[in-house]
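Hi Y.,

Following your request, here is the sequence exactly as I used it, all 103 residues.
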Amino acid sequence: MQDTGSGLFVTGEGQWQVNLPDAVQGTTSSVWEALVTGLLAGRCHKIPLEDSLEIGATAAAYAADEVGVEFGSPQDVKGYRVEVEVHAIEEGKQSKGPALDYG
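Below is the corresponding structure, written out as tokens. Let me know if you'd prefer a different format.
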């Protein structure tokens, strides 16, 4: 099992923490590329930013579970939605998640 990790996404609109599940059978190669691809696909279709991040995180979770580099169909990917977490971070408050835990 490989630690896929989490990330922090910051724009002028806000801040979000994205937590991904650990890669069980796949690898972490192409995980973050899948996240960015899903995010951009959502934004190109005028989907709100947080929802686009969820699309990207779901694609990243799928990529982490696959051996090799492959982007799945929407039907392949949608089952992974329950495995990802996207949380808005309010300004001035620290997240309890691992992306901001520098201790």
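The first helix runs from residue 31 to 44.

Thanks again,
Q.
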